Structure formats: C-alpha cells, structure tokens
Amino acid sequence: MAQFYCLSVILSVLCGLILIYSQGESFSDDSFGETAERKSIPAFEKIQESLAGESLFSNELFRLVCGALCFVTGFVIFFVPYNGISVIGDLLPSFACLFAGAGVLLGYFEEKSDSFVMPDFLENAFSSNRLYIGIGSMLVGIVHFILPGVPLL
User: Fold this and answer.
1) pLDDT tens-digit map of 76-116
2) Cα 77 to chain center, whole Å?
3) 59 and 53 in contact (C-beta within 8 Å)?
4) Chain centre to alpha carbon of residue 1
5) Is 22 exposed, middle or buried, given 0-12, 13-18 or 19+ CB atoms closer than 10 A?
6) CA separation for the pair 56, 72 (Å, rounded)
7) Which of 59, 100, 129, 138 stands the most exposed, by the fewest C-beta atoms within 10 Å?
8) How many other CB atoms sit within 10 Å of the CB of residue 147?
C-alpha cells in the first residue's frame, strides 16, 4: 500500500535523525572519538546547531509518537509490502523501521523512567549502537524512496 510506503520512508529517515541528534550528540561526540576533528563547514555547523539544541528532535512527545509509529509501520510493511512478495518484499525497510522505532522508544523510556532497567543485550544492541542504527535507517529510507519496487528494498 502506498500509504505505508510513504510512512516507512518518512519515519525511517525521521527516526534515523532522532537517533543521531536527539541527545545533542554529533558524529564526533559519539563513537568516532573526541580526537577526530572536522574542518569547519559553516552550513554543516548551522544544521548541527539547529538539530542538536532544543529542537523538534528533542521534543519528548515527538520522539514517542515517531518511535511508536515507526515501529508499528515496520511491523505492518513486513506483511504488506508496497510492490512485491509478502514478507520478503520490503524486508530491509521493515527491519530499519523496527530497529529505529525500537531504538527511539527504548531511549525515550530509559530517559523518562527511573525504574526502567534495560537488559544487557538490549543495551548493547540499541543504546551503544544508536548512531549506526540511525545512519542505517536513514540510508535504507532514502534507497527505498529511490528504488520502491526492488525486492528486499
């Protein structure tokens, strides 16, 4: 269905951005090390400042709604692909939406709750790899937008 195709593309890119920039951390702050220096590019600095500060990606309600919608959309497109075979028709976009939505939701609940304790395997899978899940989700969303009818994409 075209509606879920549009939702999967938009939400995988949005959740990817949320996973990368939600806590004010950039590429150099996370796992690439603090010693890696980037040359000053004014346009990139403005984008990073607007995304890293108090923005839409820091809004708690926006993160909760995007994470939940992304997770549900990933589950639905697993069984109802846009143009192809069921289950394997949109496999990568489905997994990208599921992982990005779960990452955003787990980050939200971890931040909001004092009693929420994430199991070690979830901590290793989602919290420590948040940057890579976000980049992967954005890339899959963009490629899925460019090539909508390709099996597995």
Assistant:
1) 888 887 666 666 668 888 999 999 999 999 888 888 888 87
2) 16
3) no
4) 22
5) buried
6) 21
7) 59
8) 9
